[in-house]
Amino acid sequence: MIHSSSPVRYIIQNNLNKWRDMLTAEASLPIEISAGRTISKSGTPSSHVYFLLDGLVRVYTINANGFVRLLGYHMSDSLFVLDDLRGGDVSVVTTEAVTDVRVLAITPAQLRSLCLKYPDFAADLVLYVGDVLRLMCYESEKLSTCDVQTRLINFLCLYLDSIPEKSPRIIPMTQESLASAINASRVQTARSCAVLKSQGII
Length: 202
Fold this sequence. Notes:
Elements: E1 11-12, H1 20-26, E2 31-33, E3 38-40, E4 49-54, E5 57-62, E6 68-74, E7 78-80, E8 94-97, E9 101-106, H2 108-117, H3 119-145, H4 148-161, H5 175-182, H6 186-198
Parallel strand pairs: 1-6
Antiparallel strand pairs: 2-9, 3-8, 4-7, 4-9, 5-6, 5-8
Helix pairs in contact: 2-3, 4-5, 5-6
């Protein structure tokens, strides 16, 4: 069981790695999904949650005007499409494979059965959902109270804190993707990037 406090992470990864073997043994065969494919779509019911074995998945929303709001990324040993934990509800977010991915599709009934069979897994699952909720609350608070430049700095720090220390200190995102992540226009984001660059911050 996870006992220590978990920091807010923009890239959700390895939260459930201790249960990888159990989930692989209990779930149906892995499904391979090609890069660019939508896995779940906002406004459409989903019948599964997914355990990510390999690859990168992005999670986002789209408003009525078609504006994309990037919510975060999932990497290995994490669960996504959590808005189907009840089973059959309409998805609130859209998930898309950024790279080729391998996933385990798990029905809510299977998940419930696993929680009853493995109480420590149930406890870790609750904490995992809490970690995802912390990220959403953190993002919501930062986006509602800060100007664009501050939101950009907060995002850059959150993103860099989410990658291993020995990894290159780069963020492989376009200005358009950064704008989506901080809920700003591309022009506002470009201006903020230019200011931070002139100050030697990026």
